[in-house]
Amino acid sequence: MAEIKAIINLRLLAGIAKPNPKMGQSLGPLGINMMHFCKDFNAATAHIRSDIPLRVQVAAKVDRSYSYIIKPPETSWLIKKVIMKEKLTQYAGHVNLDYIDVRYVYEIAKIKKEIDIDFKRATLESICNCIIGQCNSMGVNVSIIDEKPKPFNPKAKV
């Protein structure tokens, strides 16, 4: 087992990662071959739609090998997909123009618990509280809407 030299966090689109200057600045000094990394990453994420931004944590080792962990999109990206908006209010906490149903918050929490290794041991209630806090900081009110929500599909295009 080789010693870990550095840990790098990247954001890449699923299945279509290409070498770019930003990736080169991150992986190049550690001796990781970008083309090889991109091929590995694209093969591992081929089953995911290509417009979903994934978080990747790359552990570069001293012997120039690497391992990586693929994490789901950020919670803010999922919230924006549910609301179907790219931009939210500039005055979060003062002007709340958008609403999200608590059932969607629960669905996002289930996705995070299932896929994100950081939330594997957390309860759904605590994950929901984190998501509600993030909604509040983004200027989105969480409420109970009486109408039946549409099924949430993070793969849907906006």
UniProtKB/TrEMBL annotation:
Span of domain Large ribosomal subunit protein uL11 N-terminal: 8-66
Molecular function terms from GO: large ribosomal subunit rRNA binding; structural constituent of ribosome
Large ribosomal subunit protein uL11 C-terminal domain boundaries: 71-142
Record InterPro entries: Ribosomal_uL11, Ribosomal_uL11_C, Ribosomal_uL11_C_sf, Ribosomal_uL11_N, Ribosomal_uL11_N_sf
Keyword Ribonucleoprotein among record annotations: yes
GO biological process terms, semicolon-separated: translation
Gene3D superfamilies according to UniProt: Ribosomal protein L11, C-terminal domain, Ribosomal protein L11/L12, N-terminal domain
GO CC terms, sorted: mitochondrial large ribosomal subunit
Keywords of this entry: Methylation, Ribonucleoprotein, Ribosomal protein, RNA-binding, rRNA-binding
Similarity comment text for this entry: Belongs to the universal ribosomal protein uL11 family.
The protein's name: Ribosomal protein L11, amine-terminal domain protein
